[in-house]
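Just scan this pair:

***
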Amino acid sequence: MRLRHPAGRLLHLSYCTNVHPAESLEGIVGQLDEYALPIRERLGSDVLGLGLWLAAPVAAALALDAEARKGFRRELDVRGLEVVTLNGFPYSSFQDPVVKQAVYHPDWTTPERLRYTLDLARVLADLLPDDAARGSVSTLPLAWRHPWDDARAATATRMLDLLATGLADIEARTGKVIQVAFEPEPGCVIETTAQAVALLSGVDTDRLGVCLDLAHLACAWEEPAEALRALKEAGIPVVKVQVSAALETDKPGALREYVEPRFLHQTRNPEGGAVDDLDEAFESGLPGPWRVHYHVPLHSRPSAPLTTTAPLLRAAIGELVGGPDAVCDHFDVETYTWGVLPPEQRPQTAGQLADGIAAELAFAHAELSKGMRA
């Protein structure tokens, strides 16, 4: 989906396909027909944006095969689908029965992470619509916070230098600008805006910046205006925004039905209390209120006393698009947790999941439109 900012900038809105399990090219094309095409039809949109997730083996194969990339681009075009952004955070196996901390490996101290990210950039250069100003790839915020020391930090710095060089080479060969966005996340080396400023200062900001995930921002108990001001003052661009909402409550006991085995659900309170998973938060006796890293559908509200961080999402969108120009032009709805919601909230069919994602995109489109008019 596309929107035009009053200043003339084209904004791209997509949904992230890491909610789907396919990890082969054939499977990915199949899920375009099963999910993406019905979502586009439900929205009545000529074009539907995908925040495409490609597991590392698929990315590597496509990066080596120009004809395969052209063929995949044709599959997208005939379905009215476009890709300006890729989710390069999960390396593989993101919808396995248990993911937890495995999603942070390999990290930015390894050549595997560098190779995967450059593979994605090479693929994206051939998938970009002709009128897209640039492409973006989101990635993890360097690493999980343990273990982390000066030696690992120095290695990561070298990897980021090599990444910027590789992106410059892709631009020189293809004429396409691809930027990589590091996504602050609870529990990681970069969790907060202050950490992003401290650890990304000195990078090539023409190529590298941040991915602002609005659920993660909420779990850090940060205010959008202050976070964006700090990034602007540091000269660190917002390359991509993940439109997401976290769970919130002042009665933590109501969250017990959200404990599940697949993903980490880091839990935070406004006093700086921090626990790495929801079941551990119950065991720790962490005082409320809690915000929980559990991406929930944008358009719906859980039963009281639970709520979501949708008000922060709205405030952030206002800051991002409400000024004389948009701070960012890539917005990706990332609710990858549909399959682990409590059973009564969980889609039971592909059609129900398509309905839910379409409703989220309609919500996000409406909020972006209101933000631009404010």
